[in-house]
Amino acid sequence: MSAPIGSSNPKQTETQSSEIFALGQARKTFNKGLVLRFKKEIPQAIEVIEKAQRLFKESDDTLGVIYALIELAWLYGATQERPRSEKLFNEAEIYIQANRDLEGIHEVKARLLHYKGLLFYQSEDFGSALKHFKEALGFCQPQGLEAAKIYDSLGVHYERTGDFHRAIRYLKLALMTKVQNSDLIHEEAITCQILGRLYLLYEDYELAFKHLQRSFDICAELKDEKRKASLKNEMIRLFLRCGNEVEAQRLISEVLEECHNHRHLKIQLAMAHFFNAYLLYQSKDFQSSRRILERDVFPIFQKSHYRKGIAMAKRLQAWLEFSEVPHQTTVPVALICEAIEYFRQENIIDEVAKSYFELGKLYLEMKNEKLALASFLDSLRIAEENGLFYLTPYIEDEIFRTHEDQWREIVTKRSRHERVFEKRNSLLEALKEIMASPAAEEGQNTSNAGDIDPTRRQNIPFLISLLTVGQAMAAERDLDKLLGLIKNETERALNAERCAVFLYDAETNELWSKMALQEEGSYKEIRFPAHQGLAGYVVKTGDISNIENASADPRFNPEVDGQDGFKTTSMLCIPMRNRKGDIIGVFQVLNKTDGIFQRHDEELLMAIASSAGIAIENAQLYQELRITFESFIKTLSSTIDARDPITAGHSERVMVYALLIGNQMHLSEDEMEALKYAALLHDIGKIGVREDILIKAGRLTENEYRHIQQHVYYTHEILKNIRFEKHLSSVPDIAASHHEKMDGSGYYRGLKGEQIPLGGRVLAIADVFDAITSRRQYRARMPFDRVIKVLREEADRHFDVSIVAYFMDV
Asked: 555 and 534 in contact (C-beta within 8 Å)?
């Protein structure tokens, strides 16, 4: 019996009330997860948002489910679980596509695009990130919370590119929108903190303090102790910048007291200690400053692997060393060079520029105007190349003090809108110029203001080696080349007959090194148990060993000499550590050519080892990733080939032929690597070809042939969705052009002549050569003399004539 009109059904009302309650619980749980994410409590945030997702499903709230999926995808992406992140993003996209007419779905799409853009930003693909941000704005309401969060990201991006005014405009818009519309107060705190940092950077201290204080008040309300401590450290930096040391000291005391007994606030505690050490340095209490750095700053930063903090502390330590022992210039310069390498490896470019600026000021204190000018110019170049225009006035002021003519030239070029840096004039070039001068060669001391006395000139090989190794290490990914580079530069810098870099193999408990033989490019590997010899002693103890007479030392292992007839006399051994501070190997330098190894040799080797350990660890990780990636590619390739037993091994053979041609053409390493992967993957699109057509024994019909031609299109579509490294970005185009022909009659794009990528023209020959020299279901192998004739006849119509000639040379 139906209920009368106007009356209510108690069961229906109860169900509706239950659903409303469940939906309210889901949203409340979801918002709690967002606050936990804001507090950087990531595991807890994931747990709470996963619970919210289940509640949204139970309440049939599709938008809520999608929002939860996107937030989880972002959280897993931020924790480097990229496969899981991608899976969640894909799941969210399927939901969006299936519910594209649902009210509010455009805002959800905006968030998905925004978060994908943020992951691109994290991996430094800034172009893709900006594209996603702008696309996301097109899907959301301009005055809504979603738009405000995108404005934040655009503000950060434009600050990075040096467009201060556009950054401020976006951030102000974000703040206004959040204040008006958001009931999630933590969102306002995020924008205020970003704005505060930006105003601090550009020295608008009043506005910087206003926004940092507002962010701090919100964090206090949310009981977010970690962000509160970080914001207080930001304000300490602000007070130090504007000269208010009393207020800075007050905040330092507060942070030290609040963070002292909190294990999760160690970084914030160490940063406050760092500021305290800086104030003590400023007041010339050098001993207390050094004690705080050694006891309270370095141990925490190193244990936490906070490399930005380590670099900042090393920069301060450099000035302490110089202030306490002004005549000893090697150590402070080495410390700043170490800081530069730390900042460079962490890609903190503004701090790299500041460190060169500090190095210039240090050289000025040493009365060395030539090296000071070169350092300031390096700093200015980095600032200009990276849009750090707030730094340029300070750098140019120091250039004016150092070399007025150079300053005048810069000002003139700016006025004419000309490039300031047509010719590189770096610190490294300045050092080499000094060493190459006649005065340097003859050991004379000239009267030029830019020249230096003989004692200080002795430090220049040290600096040249440190900077040369540092610059090369920053770019080199190949482990063997990196080890060779370090070895050669270290031998040169320390005037040693030999340098060996022994790496520790934890699986076999051995030390190993590669020794160059007389044949060019040939190496022999040396291995011995990790407990043997002086190298083994250094690995075990972490001590530095400086031995004048190695053969008289009971720890020396003479078997190492015996392997190639080399005779060791003096020896310097230093441990090499990774980011975590674990020993990963040993630097061993043998036979000082002009005496015995001195204290300054130890300092140089320690400085090189500090950067080399991290660079070697990076190269090893890259090598492991390459091996894994290559194994995956080969497995994928052989899986496709295995669909037809007759064509098994085709892709591997095409790779071999393509690389042989590439070698004849003297292609670069990057071109050869791209060609290799394109060859292995050129037929991956056959995954989309019907099985019955793929293995058909007879000739194909016209429709079947058109269907099988589609595999090249599928190859391109599949490969373009794989994130290749930058130097491999051409792989999809090369792989998808192996059926193109020089006369334009090929497929699938009908490219002609040089429109076809060079690698594609190489693959075309390699692919056809393997096809006609292999048995197929519908024909036997073609005789070899006939193969050569076909290739020559098809030159210029099907194949590139010049590449056919290279193939014939093979």
From this structure: yes
pLDDT at residue 803, rounded to an integer: 93
CA distances from 283 to 245, 273, 288, 563 (A): 11, 15, 10, 57
- For 576, phi then psi, to 5°, come to -120, 130
- What does the block give as tokens for 705? 């042939």
- Span 552-577, mean pLDDT? 74
Average pLDDT in the 698-724 region? 84
Letter for the amino acid at 342? Y
Structure confidence at residue 214 (pLDDT): 95
pLDDT score recorded for residue 396: 93
DSSP string, 201-231: HTT-HHHHHHHHHHHHHHHHHTT-HHHHHHH
Residue 808 pLDDT more than 60? yes
d(CA 236, CA 686): 62
Which residue is associated with the tokens 């997860």?
A: 33
Alpha carbon distance 693, 703 (integer Å): 10
Single-letter residue type at 726: K
**Which of 519, 500, 502, 511 is closest to 566 using CA atoms?**
500
Q: Cβ distance 130 to 117 under 8 Å?
A: yes
pLDDT digits (tens, 9 = 90+) for 251-291: 999 999 999 888 889 999 999 999 999 999 999 999 999 99
Query: Tokens 């441990």 correspond to what residue?
Result: 575
Is residue 356 within 8 A of residue 375, CB to CB? The reply is: yes
Residues 192-204 have pLDDT tens digits of 999 999 999 888 9
Note whether 515 and 564 are within 8 A (CB).
yes
- Mean pLDDT across the stretch 580-591? 83
Distances, alpha carbon 254 to alpha carbons 144, 228, 293, 367, 407, in Å: 38, 11, 19, 41, 44
**Single pTM value for the model:** 0.56
CA gap 120, 180 in Å, rounded? 30
Tell me the C-alpha distance between 300 and 240, whole Å: 23
What are the CA-CA distances from residue 767 to residues 514, 646, 656, 730, 771 (Å)? 38, 15, 11, 18, 6
User: By the 8 A CB rule, do 300 and 308 touch?
Assistant: no
Beta carbons of 269 and 260 less than 8 angstroms apart: yes
pLDDT band (50, 70, 90) for residue 498: confident
Residue with tokens 């655009």: 154
Tell me the mean pLDDT in the region 624-638.
75
First to last CA, the chain: 91
Contacts of 158 (CB under 8 A, 6+ apart): 164, 166, 167, 170
- Which residues are registered as beta bridge partners of 504? 511
Taking residues 173-188, report their average pLDDT: 84
**Encoding tokens for residue 407?**
């300053």
CB 597 within 8 A of CB 459: no
For 312-459, strand residue ranges (E) read none
**CB count in 10 Å sphere of residue 529:** 12
Q: What strands lie across the sheet with 545-547, from one edge to the other?
A: 523-529, 510-516, 496-505, 583-592, 571-577, 545-547
Q: Could you tell me which residues come within 8 angstroms of residue 321 by beta carbon, excluding any fewer than 6 positions away?
A: 328, 331, 332, 335
